[in-house]
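pipeline/complex-builder :: batch 7 item 3
reading input block
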Amino acid sequence: MGTESYTGKINRKMGKKLRIVEVAAGREKADLVLKNAAYVNVFSNEICHGDIAVAEGLIVGMGTYSGETEVDVAGRIVLPGFIDAHIHLESAMVSPQEFVKAVLPHGTTTVITDPHEIANVMGADGIEYMLQATEGLPVDVRFMLPSCVPSTPMDESGAVLDYRTIDSFYDHPRVQGLAEMMNYPGVIGADPQVIEKIVAAQAHHKKIDGHAPGLVGNDLNAYIAAGVYSDHECSDPADAIAKLERGQFIMIREGTAAHNLEALLPLLTEKYAERCMFCCDDKHPSDLLEKGHIDYNVREAIRRGVDPIVAVKVACHHAARYFLLNNRGAIAPGYLADFVVIDDFQQFHILQVFKKGVEMYDGKEVKGFQAPEIDPYLSNRAHDTFHVAHLTAVDFAERRPRGIIGMVPGEIVTEDQGYSDHIDVEWDVLKIAVIERHKKTRHIGIGYLQGYGLKRGAVATSVSHDSHNIIVVGANEEDMAAAANRIVENKGGIVVMEDGQVKGEVILSIAGIMSDDTLENVNHALEQAKEAAFRLGVSKEIDPFMTLSFMSLPVIPTLRLTTRGVIDVMTQQYI
Amino acid sequence: MGTESYTGKINRKMGKKLRIVEVAAGREKADLVLKNAAYVNVFSNEICHGDIAVAEGLIVGMGTYSGETEVDVAGRIVLPGFIDAHIHLESAMVSPQEFVKAVLPHGTTTVITDPHEIANVMGADGIEYMLQATEGLPVDVRFMLPSCVPSTPMDESGAVLDYRTIDSFYDHPRVQGLAEMMNYPGVIGADPQVIEKIVAAQAHHKKIDGHAPGLVGNDLNAYIAAGVYSDHECSDPADAIAKLERGQFIMIREGTAAHNLEALLPLLTEKYAERCMFCCDDKHPSDLLEKGHIDYNVREAIRRGVDPIVAVKVACHHAARYFLLNNRGAIAPGYLADFVVIDDFQQFHILQVFKKGVEMYDGKEVKGFQAPEIDPYLSNRAHDTFHVAHLTAVDFAERRPRGIIGMVPGEIVTEDQGYSDHIDVEWDVLKIAVIERHKKTRHIGIGYLQGYGLKRGAVATSVSHDSHNIIVVGANEEDMAAAANRIVENKGGIVVMEDGQVKGEVILSIAGIMSDDTLENVNHALEQAKEAAFRLGVSKEIDPFMTLSFMSLPVIPTLRLTTRGVIDVMTQQYI
């Protein structure tokens, strides 16, 4: 395309456009007609009836049409394809193409991803990897550029992204803006290095997503006036309304880690719904397989009394408007032929899913599609992100007193449980380490962990927020070393180790956070590894890997462990 | 600005942005604070209360603030500035700066203009003239590029605009898209020269406005599928809803020529209002002075029972969303400080108007502002658009039978009244001529006119849709020649002539359609000229100049007169 002239571009588009007009006017047959549809009209807020004609991947008209292919939907309900307004695709632990296979049966046809996780490992190359890995997929994957890599100056991430590093990505046709600006203190405090990221996004006429739980008053004004247009961190209506009435769009989040849908149902009324959309933020494999995706939110909202048309608009139209994806989120001429066919609003069984006029899910299976081509240099780089020297028990043999991080069942906050200078399995005091793995610095932060429950062996993971260093927790240093070494050997993932034997593992060799395998296989390995962890004593009240993965994130109170030691989040001091 | 580097641009914006954050957070004083405001919140659909703080021309926060300037609005209602979604500025017959002076007291802070009239005279130079003449004005004037110049192949206009001619204007920061695509038969019929204008606008990611009265069914599907996003020609709710439910935005038009507000009130309910905005299409001087502008629509809508908040949103927010003018149409952090202060919703007296935080109207007068600088070459060209040889009675001395165009009081449609071969004042059969005036072709179309009522002398105008040739109607050929010559001498305008004496005239020397004088003076001259026309016998049921100006538009039934003779609009044949 780089050699296409402007005239050439216009001519290319003319061919399609003239055919669209011929089909819409009824002079030529459509590529596809959904006959006898009852479709949600997001403009007139009602159910309309008729045929829906498709040509060149677009809806060209509703009324009476004939087509090369005709599908009689026999009065069933047709909805626009769903949009997830904010997700980190990496959270599904599979490649984007496997993710797409998993969400198509749930009616998702567009997702807005923030490649924050892989960017923490691979920097700009991580963003580029995800762009290439999503090119041409039958779910349209759009990007928001990571705004906070690393999350904090205490993090030892694989890359540091300033505004210039990400700037050239704004020219990519699938980049919609700057992702969640988590560093809200930096925005409110007018930190130039933070503000310039916003200014650059605006200079490219792009959106800027927010992340500011509980922010109020003039600080909230400052955050919004700086140019942050949305928030997905609201967990109560008052917080959401304070943001909404100052102009932010609200993404109602229902994911694996956070569940805000029920609390935010009061937003899904005529007064506020226009400014709301759905997102999941993160979706782990089992959650995707068992609950679904945005369809879950719609189904739940309707079950709890939300007007079905409002719920559907929140699931597609409003996100499309916010992200200026003006060709989707509605069933109307000129819109993408992305459809979800359901039986009725109460059961909400998804019977068929179409992407750009192609049936991608027939109620039983997902249609095959071509895998994206990834530049070999980039693919090799994504599979070679561990730069760690071989470890032995001696590397973990710290004898000075170190802080004890107290886990809280069902939460990701932690408590300060004092100090220890040795493992004490009887009192559930385990050793925990964070091993810098990007740049062979040999930095290993060591502390103690209480509340995890492990009795024997060690558990390690390279999914660790946000820098994805290796976190390992153990009842003995030998197994800690063995578990960490095994992760490096596997190029990433999760390992449960006992007496030098692998008891369970998940191989995540794309940047140490995603698998090349299918979602089902990853989920199976993950469940087996969980069982192995529980057999070694890990408390059943805890997700053995997800909870562990937050122990290194130095922005959530009270204590966290970085590659440099235990830190008090409130004072930002190493203890 | 052409020499500014990207880093320079970011730095320049940083200065403003950092100050905005400092003020919003309450660490620095605001430039302006409206204390104790009751403001319409377009997001939460309610009246909110508090101070509104402004810095760098933007709203930075609502709450409690102090400022260098504080204006206590004492609980009065503050609204976002109004937006006219579609106007031909030339219809006010004054320069843009005079237009701005006239509409600021009515709360207008943004207008979207289609320079269709001047483009018919001066082509691309006409568009450029209007861009220069609106630069930096205290009403933000945005442009849609004329899509149909000339209106029809029968027209002899001053220019022909194909997609390439207008293409470079899409890069201008105040150009929002392609203006009303009046040639809907060309779109539906897939005429490549019409479709390529749409394709080019879309290639620039711009909006395309529509104009398709009464279009229905698959033809309407084709028109919308082609890429036409709005319509302002709806005169009944069924027509509007058919378009709205297919995804078009509806501009509810209330102007000088067309009055659709009352008929379309059913749209101003929760079900439909989100997709509606206000426009006037055209506004003649007396109408602007007597009725007002978008404020008239809001006031009338409220008086007729529309929820005031809905009416206000239709007057500002929805147009901003449609045109992707994302920094206006709301009172919220980051939005332009464009305010209208009113007493209450019932009286709806406008007390103050602010543009970008500057009080431009204090309830009594409009604050002075600098006139835009217009390139001298372009200004000279705009004042030299008549290329017509001196005319004499002989030029109008046609003796063959010619069609009689029958005027219909109060309407712009005409009737076929047969033929005549001479003027017959007793039977109200006058001679009418259209004189090509752009290219010295000496083309003069001649016909007869019934229903105008003139008894003596002649009336001529260079405001004549859409090509703005000279239309002259007379009781004798000598006065017809004298009136036309006088218009050429004046470089454009309106002339009432009797026995070679000027009885009334309006000088419109900018492209023959706009005056350099003030709106009040133009209106005064216009009213005097009307009186003179009535004194010569013109029927009082007819606007002597506006009605005349439509006699050359060969798209409205039944008969029209072009520079080549009388045409039957239905058959498109000369009779």
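note: The mean pLDDT of chain A is 97.
queue -> next item
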